[in-house]
Design goal:
Elements (H helix, E strand, L loop, with lengths): L9 H7 L15 H16 L5 E6 L1 E6 L8 E6 L7 E2 H5 L13 H12 L3 E8 L3 E2 L13 E3 L5 H15 L11 E5 L7 H16 L6 H17 L7 H8 E3 H10 L3 H17 L4 H17 L6 H16 L2 H5 L3 H10 L4 H9 L4 H17 L2 H7 L1
Parallel strand pairs: 3-5, 4-6, 5-8
Antiparallel strand pairs: 1-2, 1-9, 2-3, 7-8
Helix pairs in contact: 2-6, 2-7, 6-7, 10-11, 11-16, 12-15, 12-16, 14-16
């Protein structure tokens, strides 16, 4: 299904347009390098001020949207590593033969296909690799000296050959549009050591985000697990919310992860706040002790990035808290109302917690995350974003 460039609803297009390729969970190993790139791109976007959503393995390897709920533009990234040599024009335009002996899309053809499908909603098309590019530059500089090359910066005769090929590949009657937003980019991520490079990037990121007490290695593992889950998750997608839940990572989700990995002193401060509120709301003594014990247990267990049962439940709690009436958080008995509101929700993620953890462990999750939800909603960054 193709849409004209004037199509106004990018959100529906993202769901309705059939992706070019659908990768199954069994191919997760090949996502390692592009996952590192996607993770680093997410950190870069988070350091800015604008909202975003990064989608993994949707329409292309990485798709960065300019908003998490009302996107109007997207940046598509095709990520491909190369062991030896540089990328040439011929390699970028080569069309291998499929099983039925018909030509498959070229690398640049796969990129241009997004412009055909999404038109003016495309902000940028980028082919990313660890290798350099050997093309003729219009300014006669060596192309291998450039880390980012817009196709418009390529020498006219070579650019004409690219355009002529795309015309033939897509049966166009005129020169292809979107050349000015199509880029060839060399990433500093090395092929053999991209995980270590990525962890270094996480370290730099955390230095800007907190007081330096968040353990880098553990947080990096958590992020990689989240990226891998989003790359491989399958499920029925009926709208943008489903798409983002299954395959996306948003500003708020990443900030929630940062807030959740608290040093011991911050955990103790949070427990003290919860204890004071529990006493204020006159919970029975046994319930008070149970809630505090479960809250502490949850804070200790959630730093494990391999605990998918807990990670899924946390994601569901975040979603439910986003939808919860504001009256809950304005009330004097916030914990009582939060537990009551979430407890009545019927979700498989909550049932899994009930099966695998002690009685009312779920309530410990609810009280911790309701406090963190309030903190993230009233933080200076949230207030600035809402203005």
């Amino acid at each position: 299904m193709n849409y004209s460039s004037e199509s106004p609803d990018f959100s529906h297009q993202l769901v309705d347009v059939r992706p070019r390729e659908i990768s199954g969970a069994t191919s997760s190993n090949r996502f390692a390098y592009q996952g590192s790139f996607g993770l680093c791109l997410t950190l870069e976007l988070h350091e800015g001020k604008e909202d975003y959503c990064v989608l993994f393995d949707v329409h292309d390897d990485i798709l960065a949207l300019n908003h998490s709920t009302l996107p109007t533009k997207g940046r598509f990234y095709q990520v491909k590593s190369k062991k030896n040599g540089n990328w040439t024009r011929a390699a970028l335009l080569k069309q291998a033969l499929g099983k039925d002996k018909t030509p498959l899309p070229s690398i640049l053809g796969k990129l241009y296909d997004h412009h055909v499908k999404f038109g003016n909603h495309v902000e940028r098309l980028t082919f990313v690799s660890n290798a350099n590019f050997s093309v003729k530059m219009a300014d006669s500089t060596p192309s291998t000296d450039h880390t980012s090359i817009c196709l418009n910066a390529i020498k006219s005769d070579e650019l004409k050959q690219i355009c002529d090929h795309l015309k033939q590949e897509f049966s166009l009657t005129s020169s292809p549009a979107g050349i000015g937003c199509t880029f060839l980019e060399t990433t500093p991520l090395s092929l053999g050591d991209h995980v270590t490079h990525c962890e270094g990037r996480v370290s730099d990121f955390l230095e800007k985000q907190d007081d330096g007490t968040i353990p880098v290695a553990a947080f990096h593992r958590t992020l990689r697990t989240e990226v891998q889950r989003r790359s491989n998750r399958e499920g029925r997608i009926s709208d943008l919310d489903d798409l983002i839940k299954l395959r996306g990572l948003t500003r708020k989700q990443l900030q929630d992860m940062i807030n959740s990995v608290k040093p011991k002193t911050a955990q103790n401060d949070l427990i003290d706040l919860i204890r004071a509120q529990i006493i204020k709301e006159s919970f029975p003594l046994r319930k008070q002790q149970e809630l505090i014990a479960n809250a502490r247990s949850f804070l200790g267990k959630r730093v494990d990035p391999t605990n998918l049962i807990l990670l899924d439940a946390m994601e569901r709690v975040r979603d439910e808290l986003q939808r919860a009436p504001t009256s809950i958080f304005d009330s004097a008995d916030i914990l009582t109302q939060t537990i009551s509101y979430l407890e009545t929700s019927s979700h498989r993620e909550f049932d899994a917690i009930r099966r695998h953890y002690p009685d009312n462990f779920l309530h410990g999750i609810f009280v911790v995350m309701s406090y963190e939800h309030e903190i993230s909603e009233t933080s200076p960054q949230s207030e600035e974003k809402d203005q």
